[in-house]
Amino acid sequence: MERCPNCRARLVPEQEECQRCGMALTRLWGLLAEASQLDKAAARALMDGNLLEAQHLLARRFHLKQDSLLQQLLVFVRTA
Predict the structure, then answer these.
(1) What is d(CA 21, CA 7) in angstroms, rounded to the nearest whole number?
(2) 3-state class (DSSP) for residue 48
(3) Can you state the angle between helices 26-47 and 51-64, rounded to 10 degrees?
């Protein structure tokens, strides 16, 4: 996360709150870290051929942070 989701001020990685608007950021950093861990675990599951586990991990990841590439990957895994 490069910018505050509230006021769009530039952020320093792991900054606890926005210096401009004061928004608490600790939980958001935690969610981004969790999403990254789920991405890596899903990639490992895909490489191991475990499509069901990959689908489960990708679905959890999609609930944390949605994007179009992830949505397409979920569709691919579900139809494979």
Answers:
(1) 7
(2) coil
(3) 160
pLDDT at 65: 82
* Residue 21 covered by a domain: no
d(CA 80, CA 78): 6
Residue 16 lies in a domain: no
Please indicate whether residue 65 or residue 59 has the higher confidence score (pLDDT).
Answer: 59
Question: Is the pTM here over 0.85, yes or no?
Answer: no
Structural domain contains residue 14: no
Do residues 29 and 1 lie in contact, with contact meaning Cβ atoms separated by under 8 Å? yes
Instruction: Determine how many CB atoms are found less than 10 A away from the CB of residue 58.
Output: 24
The total domain count for the chain is: 1
